[in-house]
Amino acid sequence: MVNLIWIFMLLSGIIFSMFNGTIDEVNKGLFDSAGQAVELVIGFAAIFTLWLGMMEIANRAGLLSLVTKLFYPIIRKLFPDLPKNHPASGYIMTNISANFFGLGNAATPFGVKAMKELQQINTKPEQASRSMVTFLCLNTAAITFFPATIVSMRLSEGAVDPLDIVVPAFIATIFSCSAAILYDRISWKLVEGKSK
Fold first, then answer.
1. Which of 112, 100, 79 is CA-nearest to residue 143?
2. What is the dihedral of CA 81, 128, 69, 99, to 10 degrees?
3. Choice between 181 and 58, residue whose per-residue pLDDT is larger
4. Which pLDDT band holds residue 44 (cuts at 50, 70, 90)?
5. Is 7 in a helix, a strand, or coil?
6. In terms of DSSP H, where are the helices of 21-164?
7. 131, burial (CB in 10 Å: exposed 0-12, middle 13-18, buried 19+)
8. Which controlled-vocabulary keywords does the entry list (predicted)?
9. How far apart are CA 83 and CA 76, in angstroms?
10. What is the Cα–Cα distance from 155 to 44, expressed in whole angstroms?
């Protein structure tokens, strides 16, 4: 269904540009977008390679299991159906840590690995498990103490004070993360109530 929507939007735009006399702009946009897509893929490949390599080093050095043990009480409350000392716990904590420091691109490979680990213990593989949904909520509305990516973008654009976003962003993400966790818990209570 989504593919049909995209095809409809694409064809509508092309047909409209033909009647509107702006087909040259569509052609230029296609080639410009193709170049940007290649740059984006190469950038993501580099970031994924770096952070997946770092993650593997941290895993072999025992750092992920150490972080998991330190934060196990929090993980246990948020993910009650996750087995103790499961590899997903380390990836979840690493993802949360990367998001905490505003490194969204660095958090992505850890999130992908966490989802793969969670899928392996999913009793209903055709649908997302409770842990997967909770992790998605946490990842989407993560608490960010220092939004490094935004600060670096503001710095590159010549902002007078690129750090003035830090405190408001931290406060906003505390509220967003709290709301996401609350919504997740209420949703699961409603689902559990209907299944009984």
1. 100
2. -150
3. 181
4. low
5. helix
6. 23-60, 63-70, 72-78, 87-100, 104-120, 130-140, 148-156
7. buried
8. Membrane, Transmembrane, Transmembrane helix
9. 9
10. 22
Choose among 116, 174, 169: nearest CA to 147: 169
Q: Write the burial class of residue 72 (CB in 10 Å: 0-12 exposed, 13-18 middle, 19+ buried).
A: middle
Q: Is the dihedral of CA 185, 173, 122, 75 positive or negative?
A: negative
Q: In whole angstroms, what separates CA 11 from the centre of its chain?
A: 31
Is 65 in a helix, a strand, or coil? helix
Please answer whether residues 122 and 93 qualify as being in contact, where contact means their C-beta atoms are separated by less than 8 angstroms.
no
Global confidence as pTM: 0.67
Tokens representing residue 164 in the block: 């003035």
- Token pair for 30: 């296609």
Q: Is 35 exposed, middle or buried (0-12, 13-18, 19+ CB in 10 A)?
A: exposed
Say if CB 125 and CB 170 are below 8 A apart. no
Q: Return the structure tokens found at 89.
A: 């716990």
Report residue 43's pLDDT band, with 50, 70 and 90 as the boundaries: low
CA 193 to chain centre: 29
107-153 pLDDT, tens digit each: 888 899 999 999 999 988 888 889 999 999 999 999 988 887 777 77
DSSP letter at 83? P
